[in-house]
Amino acid sequence: MHLYPQSTCDPARWHRMRLDLLSNHTALWLNVSQYAPQVAAADVTGHPFVMGETNSVSCGGRSGISDTFGAALWGVDYVLTAASVGIEKIYFHLGGNSEYSSFTPLGYPYKNETLEAGIRPGWYAHYFLAHVVRPLVRGGGAGAGERFEIAGLPSANSSSLSGFAVYGTPPIASLNSTKPGGGSTTAPRTRRATEQQQQPAGDAKTLRKLVLLDMGVWNGTAGLSNPSTLSVTDGTAFSPGSRPSSTFRVATPWCPGRNASVVRLQAPGTNAKSEVSVSGVTFDPLTGDVQASASASAGGGGLESEVVSVGEKGVVEIEVVRAQGVLLEMNDVSPCGGTSPGGGGGGGNGGTGAGTGAAGRNGPMAATWLLAVVMCAVGTFML
């Protein structure tokens, strides 16, 4: 299956290309959720549904859209939205002369310009997603093999806001059932039902991570050019005033007083082609080597050190600026001294809660959102 939300393949679709439409989470959800019946049909046969080719704009991409930070945020939102409806694998199409490629390994002449080797914003989307699905320490040991399930947050689901809960469970040894007398066969049930049946008793899903994506458009005045992209499409229209920010208060089953680590996908604006980073980490445009943040902590993989403390009743509060992605990770999911944090987002690890929606604004440039984690994960990743 192939999916491209926009296209340069013909004049009619060419004139409908817009970066703000690509960044619109509602449009993305409508585009991706239409495949739910195909996902279910594949599941019945015991196979995963795979998006075999995809990217932002078909027929090679569109500079000024595909090579911007807005497209990077779209890429993260797309992958996690797809996972939440059960699409387990997505293959991004790249190419030597493609304007949607995440990097340019060698310079080349293109459309009356000479492009240089370099890293584009889409590269950082993939790197951020690698952090989303990386194993965490579980029960004092390595997290290798941990299964992650992705669920969309119902109260973080609008045109400019997207949110996801990432649940972890221990790995399943096998997806086959044993025949009487030996041998094995695929059980006469869906693949997901088989996974649930073979999940070890008592291993409830545990909230491990949260992802919040502010998909609102903010066109800044920095990071407009990138020598690996076409200069003719560098931004010329900018957002007025100061960059808005939102404060999110998320009710979780995490224990009060514990710290959640924070990883940010950030750039000067939606229209940025450069100055993109993941918590200060950048990549050398010629070698691809990691360039750690100057304020990186020891053992933090080069990332800037940032944590937030879980508040009363498991509430986590985090500020996010317009056009930014944030990942919250909780390593310590051991019991809270025998008590449950509760608090609207559910009681204890694996609890349930109801989304609460938006909760008004604090002044013209800031908003406060109240969210709750809901136990309804669908998509599964094996690491």
Quick take:
The chain has about 375 residues and is an alpha+beta fold. It has helices at about 10-15, 20, 25-35, 35-45, 70-85, 120-130, 190-200; strands spanning about 1-5, 5, 50-55, 55-60, 85-90, 105, 110, 115, 120, 145-160, 160-170, 175-180, 185, 205-215, 245-250, 260-265, 275-280, 280-285, 290, 305-310, 315-320, 325-330, 360, 365-370, 380.
Topology (SSEs and partners):
Layout lengths: L1 E2 L2 E2 L3 H4 L4 H4 L2 H9 L2 H9 L4 E6 L2 E2 L10 H16 L2 E6 L10 E2 L3 E3 L2 E3 L2 E2 L1 H12 L14 E12 L2 E9 L7 E2 L5 E2 L5 H8 L7 E9 L30 E7 L7 E8 L10 E2 L3 E2 L6 E2 L15 E3 L5 E7 L2 E6 L28 E4 L4 E7 L6 E4 L1
Helix pairs in contact: 3-5, 5-6
Structural features, described:
Residues 174-189, 197-202, 339-365 and 374-383 have low confidence and may be disordered. With 383 residues, this protein is α+β, with helices and mostly antiparallel strands. The protein is built from seven helices and 25 strands. Helix 3 (25-33) runs parallel beside helix 5 (69-84). The longest helix is centred in the first third of the chain and has 16 residues, at 69-84. A hairpin with a 2-residue loop joins strand 7 and strand 8. Strands 10, 11, 14, 16, 17, 20, 22 and 25 form an eight-stranded antiparallel beta sheet that branches. Strands 21-15-24-23 form a four-stranded mixed beta sheet, with no helix packed on it. Strands 1-3-5 form a three-stranded parallel beta sheet. The protein has helices at 11-14, 19-22, 25-33, 36-44, 69-84, 121-132, 191-198, and strands at 2-3, 6-7, 49-54, 57-58, 87-92, 103-104, 108-110, 113-115, 118-119, 147-158, 161-169, 177-178, 184-185, 206-214, 245-251, 259-266, 277-278, 282-283, 290-291, 307-309, 315-321, 324-329, 358-361, 366-372, 379-382. Helix content is 16%, strand content 30%. It has one domain (2-173, 198-382).
